[in-house]
């Protein structure tokens, strides 16, 4: 996986001892707890929808499949835009990081 960082970001995230950068931990922590809260918030309505009528289990399954497919849209868009940028020979002052 290849990430691009601007020179300023690269200077602030460099670690010589191999630890996770402390500056980005609050963002990661917030995203983790927000996604867990959203999953917990949607759990009860999905269970009630599932029990509501005979075809509801199929509807819930289709909804969950739709959410799973929708979660791939943004990474696919990023991948396509990076490929287009690379094909055009676009250069930036960003530093490429291979993860």
SS-based class: mainly alpha
Number of strands: 2
Which residues sit in consecutive blocks of at least 5 with pLDDT less than 50?
none
What's the helix count?
4
* Straight-line N-to-C gap: 5 Å
Provide the gyration radius in Å.
Answer: 20 Å
β-strand amount: 5-15%
> SSE order in H/E notation?
EHHHHE
The outline comes out as flat
**Count of the domains:** 1
The main sheet orders its strands as 1-2
Largest sheet, if any?
A: 2 strands, antiparallel
Helix content: 55-70%
**Overall pLDDT level:** 80
Transmembrane segments: 20-42, 62-80
InterPro entries: SLC43A3
Keywords: Membrane, Transmembrane, Transmembrane helix
Features:
single chain, 99 residues, mainly alpha, two-stranded antiparallel sheet, 66% helix
